[in-house]
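Hi P.,

Sorry for the delay on this. The queue was packed all week, but I finally got your sequence through. Input first:
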Amino acid sequence: QVQLVESGGGLVQAGGSLRLSCAASGSIFSINAMCWYRQTPGKQRELVAVITSGGSTNYADSVKGRFTISRDNAKNTVYLQMNSLKPGDTAVYYCKVVAAPDVYWGQGTQVTVSS
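Then the structure:
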């Protein structure tokens, strides 16, 4: 059984920073990609950032230059460093781990940015 545990969310003022972590445990043999998504009420979940097993990264245009995704392969952990946060970044953030053909989701962590 695979479990993803997220941490690091919270309340921060605009311009501040937060670092999210997502640790995967259980029987995962080969992770292809690790991702962060976010979702606000009434909207679809959107991809924020992705990092592949080879270390390639991609970001949503709205977070480029402010967010950085990284991973520790030895710990099966993915991070999202969020800087220069804006009220528009307020959402529940979810990590996703792709270990083809399986996909696993974290439980979500709330990020609230006050103006």
